[in-house]
UniProtKB/TrEMBL annotation:
Name of the molecule in the record: DNA polymerase delta catalytic subunit
Domain DNA-directed DNA polymerase family B exonuclease: from-to ranges: 11-220
InterPro entries: DNA-dir_DNA_pol_B_exonuc, DNA_pol_type-B, RNaseH-like_sf, RNaseH_sf
GO BP terms: base-excision repair, gap-filling; DNA replication proofreading; nucleotide-excision repair, DNA gap filling
GO MF term list: 3'-5'-DNA exonuclease activity; DNA-directed DNA polymerase activity; nucleic acid binding
GO CC annotations on file: delta DNA polymerase complex
Domain of life: Eukaryota
């Protein structure tokens, strides 16, 4: 792409490409094409593609100190909300639960008898929905990290969330910079072919825009989304989660209460993305700088400057995954 000075929309001339048969595909994209790079040509700008954005949140069991440790505590629910960029309402809502959960209006409730089956079904769900962007709140430091570590502990599932077959999701430690906190250590999770946009990372990084005193989800929702009941984080204590899941009176109805809480935590990041045009803003900045979307979310500002012109000048290669 960079060699041909391409960016944005491109065109594949007829009879110059081959659609790969399922048996030969290397990726989980809906269409996989093989074409020589010098046959690809630029095409008129058609605006932003309607990217699919999936927001998710997990709930885990806790110990008496309100801590979750992946080597000990199971994942008991994963909520999911999926939107097309630019639309305000999710077109798909789904919750994956460990053990029974009563029905929730307009939500696919998928219950499983074991945590391994739950995680495997959720991974299949990611492959089927094929989101361009994974989002949520603190998903890099906690949710994705916990899923990867938990899967390794169970030893029954390799976490393959990417579009590249055989590419395992992995987490690494980085120093991240933000306007609010300066440089601080955090986790990064690499999922080839998908962009991970963590709002817990985005908001303090852009403190000069949001100017919040606290960047917890409850405070963020209250300050940035208003007072509407559907725009606020619900209150549910760590002790309540344990009781609702496996207490003496736990059943499908109690787990439904937890599921509604979990779903709201997946809904709020989408409301923030839509209200502030966050994804659209990154796409516009990427076009201006000729930088891949994912680079703009990297741990340092240096990645934001490694655009096509600079890469070409320094004879560097920018990875597409």
């Amino acid at each position: 792409m960079s060699c041909q000075d391409l960016g944005g929309w491109v065109k594949f001339p007829a009879k110059k490409y081959e659609v790969m048969p399922d048996a030969e595909r290397q990726c989980r994209t809906q269409i996989e094409i093989e074409i020589s790079h010098d046959e690809v040509v630029t095409y008129e700008d058609r605006g932003n593609s309607p990217l699919r954005v999936l927001s998710f949140d997990i709930e885990c069991m806790y110990d008496t100190e309100n801590k979750s440790v992946p080597s000990i505590h199971p994942i008991i629910q994963i909520s999911n909300m999926v939107v097309r960029m630019g639309e305000s309402e999710p077109f798909l809502r789904a919750i994956f639960t460990l053990n029974s959960c009563d029905l929730i209006e307009d939500v696919y409730v998928c219950s499983y008898s074991s945590e391994s089956k739950l995680l495997e079904a959720w991974q299949d769900f990611i492959h089927d929905v094929d989101p361009d962007v994974l989002t949520g709140f603190n998903i890099l430091n906690f949710d994705l990290w916990f899923i990867i570590e938990r899967a390794q502990k169970l030893a029954t599932l390799n976490v393959e969330l990417s579009r590249s077959k055989g590419s395992l999701a992995k987490h690494v430690n980085y120093n991240f910079y933000s306007d609010r906190y300066g440089s601080r250590e955090g986790r990064n999770v690499q999922i080839p072919g998908r962009v991970v946009l963590d709002l817990f990372r985005h908001l303090p990084r852009n403190h000069s825009t949001f100017k919040l005193q606290n960047y917890g989800l409850k405070d963020v929702a209250k300050c940035l989304l208003g007072d509407g009941p559907d725009s606020q984080k619900m209150d549910l204590s760590y002790q309540s989660i344990t009781e609702l899941q496996e207490g003496p009176e736990a059943n499908g109805a109690t787990r439904r209460k937890m599921a509604v809480y979990c779903l709201q935590d997946a809904r709020l990041p989408l409301k923030l993305l839509h209200k502030y045009g966050i994804v659209e803003g990154y796409l516009q900045k990427g076009k201006e700088k000729q930088v891949p979307f994912a680079n703009l979310l990297g741990p340092s500002h240096a990645l934001q400057e490694l655009g096509v012109p600079n890469a070409r000048a320094s004879q560097a290669v920018i990875s597409d995954f």
